[in-house]
Amino acid sequence: MLGFNARNLSSIDPQYKCRICSRILRNPVQLNCGHRQCKSCVEYRLQAERIKCPECGHETLESEILPDRGVKNDMKSIGILCSFCPWEGMFKVYENHLNEFHANPTCDYCGTSFNSINELDIHQTTNCSEIRVPCPLKDYGCATSVRQLYMVEHYRSLEHQIAIIAFIRRDVPKLLSDTMDIDHFPQTTTSLVETHNTPLEEVRDMIAVLENGVDVLNEDAKRLSIETNKLSNAIEKLNNEYNALKLSIQEQNTYLDGIKPKQDALQQEVSTLQQTIDGSQSISYDGTYTWRISGFREKMADAQTERQTSIYSLPFYSSPTGYKMRGRIYLNGDGNARRTHISLFFVLMRSEYDAILRFPFSYKVTFCLFDQTSAQRHIIDSFRPDIKSNSFQRPRSEMNIASGIPKFFSLELLQDEANPYVRDDTMFIKIMVDFGDMPKTLLPFAFSVNPGYTITIQQNLIRKEAERRSQQQQQLLTSAMSWPTTDSSIVKTEEQ
């Protein structure tokens, strides 16, 4: 280490130098391949409890590393110069000299003080960030000095790789050629062999440096391979998750497509329920119901696209303890009247008082589509129930089958924007159950009475109108009976 980095290190036998730090061995240990290293260098390079020999590449387990006391004893007779002062002497007393005169050394690079040379050596070998050492390939274009801690990173640099290529191209063939010349001429003198020892030693040193670089690159390759495998596994996992998510989305879309009809049906029920809530305050108990159909265009579009073909009115009653009824309209027609007429039906519903009511239901039902102008040309039509039909028997379910007038009103007349029956996107229809058998001729008057009047007033006006018409007919009949018939020609004509 640096404490033993003698100034005349180049003259020391290579067997006493560490191949890792290129300095004189300190506390030498032997690997199971036979090569020697500094104990601290070996401990620093241990990976997974094993070390790879920088000379031969053989791996040695930590438990197989043994102290080399023989070499340590041989080194005691080596002459050495102190790297801190002019002292010179034998290696065996060098450590005593260091402890006596250099007990608290300071790092020349970073200025940190230490309690012993050992700590300084460890610091300068492993921890000092300010130490700069020359790159072994500085003569081949690599950086002249590199921070010691970053030497491994330097080996990975492009600059160092280019220097390796330059060394291989320029010197390796020459050195190999020189070596082959020596092998072919064994009779060469000892001095000639010695002249070749120096380049061969340099080749070994260079190869050791290259091996270190290759080791670093191999370690990087292994690390990159492991990271690549991890990334591949992560990508595969992400792909699986993506496919699972994609399948989940497809299943969800299929599920949503499946529930869309149910959603539409629920929307219809919500719409009907909203109508029920809106009209719950205006329930009729007199056998008549004025049905206000707002949003006519949207409802007509729903009927034409068959999104909602029919609409129910709110229930109404003949009396507080009477029949329960409602209307049902097909704006785009039903059955044979589809796309040609509005179909309007009457529905008998189950009520709490059916047990005391008379069935079958036999009372005339009249529909009136209001003309919303002053002309009051209402569309009025009525029908009498078929008492044999199940539609007018006592309800056994919530509602009986609807029955009424399929061709109530022509759709062709509604296509005219100026038609008087739809104004402000609203239509009004009145349903009336006639318990008094009102004459058909009186119906236009009954529907022309101001709906703003109370039911009692409306009924009184209709009754008075019926009485007035009855009296008028009686007077006409009396006048006809009392008219003189002296004209023989008139009598003869009536007789004929």
Automatic annotation (TrEMBL):
InterPro entries membership: MATH/TRAF_dom, TNF_rcpt-assoc_TRAF_met, TRAF-like, TRAF1-6_MATH_dom, Znf_RING, Znf_RING/FYVE/PHD
Bias kind Polar residues: ranges: 478-496
Domain annotation MATH: ranges: 286-433
Region (Disordered) residue spans: 473-496
PROSITE patterns to which the protein is assigned, alphabetical: MATH, ZF_RING_2
UniProt keyword annotation of 4Fe-4S present: no
N-terminal signal peptide: none
Biological process according to GO: apoptotic process; regulation of apoptotic process; regulation of canonical NF-kappaB signal transduction; signal transduction
Keywords: Apoptosis, Coiled coil, Cytoplasm, Isopeptide bond, Metal-binding, Ubl conjugation, Zinc, Zinc-finger
Coiled-coil residue spans: 200-255
Pfam families membership: TRAF-mep_MATH, zf-C3HC4_2
Domain RING-type positions: 18-56
Protein location: Cytoplasm
The keyword ATP-binding is annotated on this UniProt entry: no
Superkingdom: Eukaryota
Protein name, UniProt field: RING-type domain-containing protein
Source organism phylogeny: Eukaryota, Metazoa, Spiralia, Gnathifera, Rotifera
